[in-house]
Amino acid sequence: MESPGSVPARPAYAGVWRFTAPALEVSVPQARHAVRDLIRRQGVPVHDETLQGLLLIVSELVTNAVRHAALLSPEVAVEVAIGPEWIRVAVEDNHPYRPKALETDYAQTGGRGLLLVKEITREAGGTCDVEHTVTGGKIIWAALPYATADARGPAPL
Length: 157
Description:
Number of helices: 4
Order of helices and strands: EHHEEHEEH
Oligomer: single chain
């Protein structure tokens, strides 16, 4: 039992993990499986719907780095930060271009990955953003709470 005014204990599953992968198509499923295995190994109490959304986000972000940044970034870095109530995934590359989510264009067969990431994040009640690195590259991240939007009620618009 905690005494009044004490800092709550950090859950055993919390922490930050980072790994790199070559900027190749084969790295997309490898990154997704590595994140899934890490979350399972750590025993993170995440709802399956949230986990599936998070893994789709990882796939989309790594795919974007492989397709659009490989020329300037032969490796991509994936970071997973797990807190007491949220999971944050980030993908870093060395390309300076800051991508923007495209509008829905049903005639296009691709190009909506960031739009999908934004929508999954919004529906889960999370947040996402793009930041520049000190070396001139970028980090694209998304943070999701463990509970699904349905468990907490509708997300604000």
